[in-house]
Amino acid sequence: SEDLLAAGRTAYELDRSHVFHSWSAQGALDPMTIVRAEGSHVWDGEGRRMIDFSSQMVNTNIGHSHPAVVAAIQEQAGRIATIAPAHVNDARSEAARLVAELAPGDLDHVFFTNAGAEAVEHAIRMARLHTGRDKVLSAYRSYHGGTDLAVNVTGSARRFASDRGAAGVARFFPPYTYRSAFHAETPEQEAGRALEHLEQVIQLEGPGTVAAVILESVPGTAGIYVPPAGYMEGVRELTRRYGILFIADEVMVGFGRTGRWFGVDHWGVVPDLMTFAKGVNSGYVPLGGVAISDAVYDTFTDRAYPGGLTYSGHPLACAAAVATINAMKDEGMVDNAARIGTEILGPRLRQLMERHPAVGDVRGLGAFWAVELVRDRATKEPLAPYGGASPEMGELAGECKRLGLLPFVSENRLHIAPPLNTTDEVLHEGLDILDQALEVTDAHAAG
Ligand code: PLP
């Protein structure tokens, strides 16, 4: 309506006067206004409806404005809107029970945080105290959050400006078959060589100094590359052999994104610590956490855990998590994510690769896919540089938006991550738009 659009224009002016934005030079910013959000759609400042293939920050797994979750937050707000973490609260207890029930193996204890980066900070603190070791091994091309330690553990270019080189972090190459660091030609070779490499890194860093290996179950922000069969099982085996804790970062893929409740479930792997956030309550209220194994939990039975947060297990966030998880179960959303990956997103994105020469690679699982754009399929030269943007990718993003599709754009990739309950009709509509938008990059591709 006209009122919404007028309010949006006021909001835009105030934003440009007073809001300081993430990861951006402030001067040239022209952020998009969202005036309405419902299900798998958002409406921009001109009232244009867009299909949300980004799930915002890959977190609105159940879509926008799910009535059961909105009602649960309203009910909780009317009863107990906030409470100190020391006091028992029914929303927090039930959220913890549900997370423990869904998490693999003996990850039965939950420390709640406000978001993903804090979950990573606390998982690493727990691992260091449990092992009495300091070093953390993390993967290149990873993203673990924007706080000081989490961004230092991060392996993508986002850490460059904050990398202190002294946070006790060493890095290794993860498997990435399309751009193999190991000159592998098959996923099997990639998995085997990546594991040999990781073992060498452990040995050369000194196994007795390494507290944890932290790894996204399916690396997300930095490129959505699904680990080849055998890799995650191998990491589990290696870390166990050297007495190192395995922290699986499930912040982006946890709670159904890949068509299983957790990414590690694809490989039957049980980590020692598992971080989550985003999808746990679809981002309706900020929430994250660490799921903790019995062995790590036991470290803190007689010894105080040195850490806490005013809002650990906030009732509004936990009530939203309970309602979200129940809605996901009731509506079969995780199975639906698996189905749309196999039946719609995978096949249709591969068709786009056949039709558009600038598409160099398509990969993913469930409702989590990357389309990687190149100037030349033979050289695989990316359409935007590592850690940067390009006019061509900007043009592609602009064309998607103009045609009514909101994608997630990073470097030379589009990430396709719609809500898990997006209807088949809307998915096809979005993919048709993507097909049309990709015509703008065809001109930039050789061959
Ligand atoms: N870990 C992973 C795997 C993520 O994808 C993210 C965010 O994208 C984070 C951690 C950080 O989460 P937050 O931004 O909620 O702090």
UniProtKB/TrEMBL annotation:
Gene Ontology MF annotations: transaminase activity
Keywords: Aminotransferase, Pyridoxal phosphate, Transferase
InterPro entries: Aminotrans_3, Aminotrans_3_PPA_site, PyrdxlP-dep_Trfase, PyrdxlP-dep_Trfase_major, PyrdxlP-dep_Trfase_small
Top-level taxon of origin: Bacteria
Pfam families: Aminotran_3
Database matches in PANTHER family: AMINOTRANSFERASE, AMINOTRANSFERASE CLASS-III
Family under the similarity heading: Belongs to the class-III pyridoxal-phosphate-dependent aminotransferase family.
Record protein name field: Aspartate aminotransferase family protein
